[in-house]
Amino acid sequence: MELTPRQIVSELDKHIVGQDAAKRAVAVAVRNRWRRQRVDEAMKTEISPKNIMMIGPTGVGKTEIARRLATLTGAPFIKVEATKYTEVGYYGRDVESMVRELVENALGIVRSAEREKVKDEAARRANDRLVDLLLPPPASNTAATFDGDDEKQSDDELVGALKHERNREKIRKMLEAGQMEDRTVSIVSETQAVPMVMSNIPGMESMEFDFQEMFEKIAPKSRNTRELTVREAREWLIEQESDKLISKDKVQATAVELAENLGIIFIDEIDKIVAGDKQHGADVSRQGVQRDLLPIVEGTTIQTKYGYVKTDHVLFIAAGAFHRSKPNDLMPELQGRFPIRVELNDLTKDDFVRILTEPSGSLTKQYQALLQTENVELVFERDGIETLAGYAFDVNQKTQNIGARRLYTIMERLLEELSFEAPDMSQGRVAINAGYVRERIDEVSKDEDLNRFIL
């Protein structure tokens, strides 16, 4: 959250090619949230987030911008498809479920942060438990003595206790030195089956957590014994001890606050809930979803199993291709809640070249890393990359334009034979040049019937 808009755009540039207007819009929106945290309380409640609507064809980076933004800022983030709320009956799934999913995401972030704070103490406790598992404490001798010599018995118990403690220290040092990682220990755990009784009934998600809480109280717990290596058991025990050290109530309260103030909800395919000319069937469902979305985007209070959550300051980013409709076809009230609109551009051949080479996790670098595990050096030459980009652009123009996703299918087709043969090559160097690309892609790309199904 300390990043400036320029720094945010710079970070996004490492993963996403082009689309500068969209990057600038989300960068300013995130920075405004940082600014809001620093104004006085009276003004803070008045400042609402400026929601964003991204308009552009599929595969140009809409989802990736939102996803990378959330990762960059550490904010709770969820992506939902607007169409899933129209799938069942008139209203489909409960629209409020998106807020509950956001809180769950925030809970994971907060829990991870709290566990990090107590990891050293949790590791120490886990080590103590591992010592107990490897060398259980001796059973206390409560049997009556037959010789009546209580002093001698006391001495024997003291010697035994000292010997046991020395053995424990030896095991502890061996554990710390990593000498017992493959030893096996028995772990006893408790599990509880809690049925998801309402999850498949439309509109009943708000009641689901009430039933879950009830079953958690009354459902019996079963004890299971598992054989784990010390390495596996340590991870499990650290997690258990971490949960004991952190406050459950504090984690939940912090997660709700984090979701309310920094949460980002990305609503994809919002253009699919635009009603057409006919006002029945699917169109009624779409209009209903818009009406359900409106109060959440405007700002309302949603009940979750972690408490009430206000959506007044959640940042909503909507996206849609708007091929058969336009943003103005949405309900006027919903339109007004997305004041920032940015249009993302179609990808050109030059964009495809940049996508294949510039991002830190580009497709070419991914395949190079994958085949390097087989000791095969994969080298993409410039003319080969340009030829690949040309095929991707041409196929998008001839068939349905799916943007950068076209590169995935073309790359798989290009490297299918090499990926199959790589384990038997032992080692080698393969150069991907223009000739290599044409030999494997040209025939398929020219045949429209073939590329429609293969590329």
Order of helices and strands: HHHEHEHHHEHEHHEHEEEHEHHEHHEHH
Low-confidence stretches: 141-146, 277-281
Q: Strand arrangement, largest sheet?
A: 2-5-8-1-9
Structural class: alpha/beta
The CATH top-level class label of the largest domain: Alpha Beta
| CATH topology tier name of the largest domain | Rossmann fold
Whole-number average pLDDT?
A: 80
What characterizes the major β-sheet?
5 strands, parallel
Number of strands: 11
Q: With helices defined by DSSP (H or I, 4 residues minimum), what is the helix count?
A: 18
Beta-sheet strand percentage?
5-15%
The number of domains: 3
Determine the CATH superfamily of the largest domain.
P-loop containing nucleotide triphosphate hydrolases
How would you describe this structure to a colleague?
By secondary structure, this protein is of the alpha/beta class. It folds into 3 domains: 5-112 and 257-343, P-loop containing nucleotide triphosphate hydrolases (Rossmann fold, 3-Layer(aba) Sandwich); 119-138 and 147-245, no CATH class; 349-449, Helicase, Ruva Protein, domain 3 (Orthogonal Bundle). It is 55% helix and 13% strand. The chain is built from 18 helices and 11 strands. The protein has helices at residues 5-13, 20-36, 41-44, 62-73, 97-117, 119-134, 150-176, 205-218, 230-245, 248-262, 282-298, 332-335, 349-357, 363-372, 382-398, 405-425, 434-446, 448-454, and strands at residues 52-55, 77-81, 184-191, 222-229, 264-268, 301-304, 307-310, 315-320, 340-343, 376-380, 428-432. A 5-stranded parallel sheet has the order 2-5-8-1-9, with helices on both faces. Strands 3-4 form a two-stranded antiparallel sheet. Strands 6-7 form a two-stranded antiparallel sheet. The longest helix has 27 residues, at 150-176. The chain is globular, with a radius of gyration of 30 Å. The model is unreliable at 141-146 and 277-281 (pLDDT under 50).
